[in-house]
Amino acid sequence: MSEHRMIQASSWWMAVCALCVVACLFASPLVAQDDSFGAEDEATVAEEEVDFSEIDDLLAMDDEVMNDPGVYSYEPGARRDPFRSLLQRKDLPEDVEPERPEGVAGLLIDEIEIEGILMLEGAGPVAQVQTASADISYLLRPGDELWDGDVVRITLDEVVFKQEDRDPGARKPFREVVKRLNP
């Protein structure tokens, strides 16, 4: 390193140190505090009596509101309620299942058996199904909705259903079920 650069570097450091010393000298009166000012404030606070009853009343009202289930309301609009569990699909208790309607809308995919498949001109394929618990036959067409799914397609020897998966841990919300025509 040249001698000229060494002199510039040392003078620059001396200038920085001088500025720091000057800043400390001017800042020290600002940092110092008057002890009598703090003592007066403490005496004033000690003389005044603070009323906490209003705060206690407000806290009691908050507890009443938070613990009252009838007070809770949330207007979700088209969004889901963020305060409801994602594991519950309906607002019904878990042990109560809603009553199934009569007819095709009340059929469960697991309960039905394919009795026959008809190919109608102009109307497309129709499947005749029957449940083990009833002596009534029903006719299904593609797109018909059942209690736990719907009919996807009907071929000459099988009916394909899309069944809702009610298991909250399932990867998909539905599964494909294929029922073959009984020989």
Description:
This protein is an alpha+beta fold and 183 residues long. 31% of the residues lie in helices and 23% in strands. β2 and β3 form a beta hairpin. The longest helix is centred in the first third of the chain and has 29 residues, at 3-31. Strands 4-5-6-7 form a 4-stranded antiparallel β-sheet, with no helix packed on it. Strands 1-2-3 form a 3-stranded antiparallel β-sheet, with no helix packed on it.
Describe, in short, the structure shown.
The protein has 183 residues and is of the alpha+beta class. The chain has helices spanning 3-31, 35-47, 53-67; strands spanning 112-120, 124-131, 137-140, 145-146, 149-154, 158-164, 174-180.
Radius of gyration: 40 Å
Structural class: alpha+beta
Percentage beta strand: 15-25%
* Helical content band: 25-40%
Instruction: Give, in spatial order, the strands making up the sheet with the most strands.
Output: 4-5-6-7
For this structure, the quaternary state is: single chain
Largest sheet, in brief, is: 4 strands, antiparallel
Overall pLDDT: 76
Separation of the first and last Cα atoms: 101 Å
User: How would you spell out the order of helices and strands?
Assistant: HHHEEEEEEE
Name the overall outline: elongated
Number of β-strand runs: 7
Report the total helices: 3
**Unreliable segments (pLDDT under 50, ≥5 consecutive)?**
none
What is this structure's SSE topology?
Elements (H helix, E strand, L loop, with lengths): L2 H29 L3 H13 L5 H15 L44 E9 L3 E8 L5 E4 L4 E2 L2 E6 L3 E7 L9 E7 L3
Antiparallel strand pairs: 1-2, 2-3, 4-5, 5-6, 6-7
